[in-house]
């Protein structure tokens, strides 16, 4: 089994935990998710003895997230190693097509992934997104424009959308 490289860093929204494999970033925990949540996810998906503390292996992800928070990056390019179901992977791929500074509804996202009535399933896949911000699930809002359903909390979702210029209020 290959190693899983973990670290944390302080950001404008609080402590972020990152894990990566040889293939790329596989997990990001942003505030509201705890260190315990982060290591619980890792334990579910990897062998504990393969998890090592290594900040240098996650340097590019940290740099890109820092540039994003400073308004200097609109599109992430870090390699990823996504772990999910076929449906989740399809939803997460589509999330990456939502341009910086824009939003779509869960209903629109469901149509884009080919399940027009499956907005609840799409919402569930969003909630399982292992790489929030890099895979911008925060850009999905309610059909009525409300800020609904964000695992890191509505205040964080609002902060991210404001930082991108998607919310003007």
Can you give a write-up of this model?
- It is a single chain.
- Helix 4 (106-112) crosses helix 5 (119-127).
- The protein has two domains: 4-69, Double Stranded RNA Binding Domain, CATH 3.30.160.70; 86-164, Winged helix-like DNA-binding domain superfamily/Winged helix DNA-binding domain (Arc Repressor Mutant, subunit A, Orthogonal Bundle).
- The strands form two sheets. Strands 3-2-1-4 form a four-stranded mixed sheet, with helices on both faces.
- The chain has helices at residues 35-45, 59-69, 86-95, 106-112, 119-127, 154-164; strands spanning 4-11, 14-20, 25-29, 51-53, 104-105, 140-141.
- The longest helix has 11 residues, at 35-45.
- The radius of gyration is 16 Å and the shape is globular.
- It has 169 residues and is of the alpha/beta class.
Give the C-level CATH assignment of the largest domain. Mainly Alpha
**Which percent band covers the strand fraction?**
15-25%
How would you state the average pLDDT, rounded? Answer: 93
What is the number of E strands? 6
Helix content: 25-40%
Count of individual domains: 2
Radius of gyration: 16 Å
Spans of 5+ residues with little confidence (pLDDT < 50)? none
So, CATH architecture of the largest domain?
Orthogonal Bundle
What is the first-to-last residue Cα distance?
49 Å
């Amino acid at each position: 089994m290959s190693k899983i490289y973990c670290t944390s860093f302080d950001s404008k929204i609080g402590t972020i935990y990152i894990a990566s494999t040889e293939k790329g970033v596989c997990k990001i925990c942003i505030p509201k998710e705890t260190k315990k949540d982060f290591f619980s996810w890792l334990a579910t998906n990897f062998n504990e003895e393969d998890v090592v503390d290594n900040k240098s292996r996650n340097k590019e992800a940290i740099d890109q997230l820092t540039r994003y928070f400073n308004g200097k990056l609109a599109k992430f390019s870090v390699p990823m190693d996504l772990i999910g179901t076929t449906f989740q992977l399809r939803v997460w791929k589509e999330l990456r097509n939502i341009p910086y500074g824009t939003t779509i509804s869960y209903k629109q996202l469901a149509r884009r992934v080919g399940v027009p009535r499956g907005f609840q399933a799409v919402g569930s896949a969003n909630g399982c997104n292992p790489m929030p911000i890099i895979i911008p699930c925060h850009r999905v809002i309610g059909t009525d424009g409300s800020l609904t359903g964000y695992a890191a909390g509505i205040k964080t979702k609002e902060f991210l959308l404001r930082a991108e210029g998607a919310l003007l209020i």
